[in-house]
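JOB MANIFEST
job_type = single_chain_structure
chain_count = 1
residues = 635
[input]
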Amino acid sequence: MTDFQILTEDELKMKVCIAEKPSVAREIADVLGAKTRRDGYLEGNGYQVTWTFGHLCMLKEPQDYTPQWKYWSLSSLPMIPGRFGIKLIDNETYRHQFSIIEGLMQNAEMIINCGDAGQEGELIQRWVMLKAKARCPVYRLWVSSLTEEAIREGFASLKDQKEYDRLYEAGLSRAIGDWILGMNATRLYTLRFAQNRQVLSIGRVQTPTLALIVKRQEEIENFKPEPYWELKTKYRGVLFSSVKGKFQVKEDGEGLLEKVRTSDFMVTDISEKKGKEFAPRLFDLTSLQVECNRKFGYTADETLKLIQSLYEKKLTTYPRVDTTFLSDDIYPKVPGILKGLRGYETLTAPLAGKKLPKSKKVFDNSKVTDHHAIIPTGVPPTNADAREMSVYDLIARRFIAVFYPECQVAVTTVSGQAAEIGFKATGKQILDPGWRAVFAQPADSPEGQGTARTEHQDPSEQDGQDTDGQHVQEEEKILPPFVKGETGPHEPLLKETWTTPPKPYTEATLLRAMETAGKAVEDEELRDALKENGIGRPSTRASIIETLFKRRYIRKERKSLFPTDTGRELIGLIKEDLLKSVELTGQWEKKLRMIEKGAYDAKTFIDELKDMSKDIVISVLSDNSLRAEKIGNKQ
């Protein structure tokens, strides 16, 4: 199918389009010319456009397979259905809408799956079609934005749904795997340890994430601060540090301090190295959630809702992405997008009419699979509220900045010595701000947020272990002019410092830890490589964190996350690494991605989780050392 067709009123069978939300359905129907409102769908020009409300169907619950599984009993574990099935979610509104969808699909000429272009969107719509017993040909609409142009292009290049079977297999494998592990482990630990006082919820991604927070808290509490000393000296108002580094024994530093006091300071070398700093990368969902948490205090879930709203308002592209790159086919569209950024004319004017750079740091087909990085669509942002505009502003500025020149810097290192003890001081000077100007200038109108946004992190929020590497760091000191060979008096000192414990996770730093399987990584390229083993998906990490709050396993003080007593006790009870290891869970996530690519068998993945659940049940029930440990029993 390559274009819209005008069908006669006598035509009985229609093309049925099914979107994931009513708002998205309205956008699609408007483009298709389906203007007539019906109960639960829009109709016209040969199309019927209907919608779900996210998930209408779910995997069957234990009691749906056998009455014995309705009652929680250790003797019934593990529960492994011979064949998994789906059912409608028990909701009157959902049942009514499904009956409409079912009727449309039974009489359809073809079905066009217009669900969100990702794994979860594929699963949602496939389950509905499966439940409705759809028999006609099915095609897939795959778009990265909801602009009229994108929708028309998508309908002009519909794909056979079979091309997305692997995507569905991965989503189905994820859902079944979560059911097997979550249902069995939750019942097992609740019955064994909770004494009917509460449900101990355990999940394939939820529990390793909680384990990260508990482990960090234990590191903080067990941390023993230790002193160290650094030899420094102040010469001409500049603080120089000894090349000897840190002293673990104070007397070692004191001996050198007395020695350098007897000698003038002499400048022995001056070196200047000019370099370039590249603009921050474009956003994927996780980096956007990280940035919004640091800048505005938005939770991961709040940011996801805001960027989803911007997507549905046609202002930004598809948000649930894990790449920071664009595909080559976006490059010809860039001038048009820049031109549409109303409120940013001052920033886009220097780019107008020029051949824009096409950097491999921005455009790389090999780094883009289903979707590219989050960027503006070029539709003027006239219908967004203040919170949405704060997110939009970050995205717009990142997009503009990648087409600006690199920032030119000069790093000066001054070496000196006193009593043959070497010292160094380093300063950085910005010679040409380049892309930094994009973050230093205010936008031109209220729509563009009218305030300057400098992209440096508040030092009070730095974790020291998980800087995302995309922030514009604060400028280092600029050194006064020195001359090689000059000498003069100086003020040496031995500075005492104490080691500090790691900081509690914030949502920003926790998202990074989930993305990199708990490893502290600053380098962007290394972090990209570790994404393969990250836990959760960009679209689900926010809900995982929210679940931990709802279960009262974690709490928040200002921005910091702490485990509750229940959360700590639960992780303490779990001896099986299979349930709480971030690394092992990351390996399962990698297999799910391989299923999506056709490089791993879905049945093998499910069988592995079945075997794992059986092993966990046997291990917990046979471990007599756990009998005394009951949540809520500790004195």
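[summary]
DSSP finds 21 helices and 18 strands in the chain.
Residues 1-11, 446-475 have pLDDT under 50 and may be disordered.
exit_status = 0
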